[in-house]
Amino acid sequence: MTVDLLLGLQWGDEGKGKIVDVLTSQYDIIARFQGGPNAGHTLEFDGIKHVLRTIPSGIFHQNNINIIGNGVVIDPVVFKSEIDGLAKFNLDLQSKLIISRKAHLILPTHRLLDAASETAKGKAKIGSTLKGIGPTYMDKTGRNGLRVGDIELADFKERYRALADKHEAMIAFYDVNIQYNLPELEKEFFEAIEDLKKLSFIDSEEYLAQAQKKGKSILCEGAQGSLLDVDFGTYPFVTSSNTTAAGACTGLGIAPNKIKEVYGIFKAYTTRVGSGPFPTEDFGAAGDMMAKTGNEFGSVTGRKRRCGWLDLVALKYAIQINGVTQLMMMKADVLSGFDTLKVCTAYNYKGEVIHHLPYNIEEENVTPIYTELRGWQADLTGMTSYDSLPLALKDYIEFIERAVGVPIKIVSVGPDRKQTIMK
Ligand code: IMP
Question: Binding of Mg(2+): at which residues (predicted)?
Answer without folding.
Answer: 13, 40
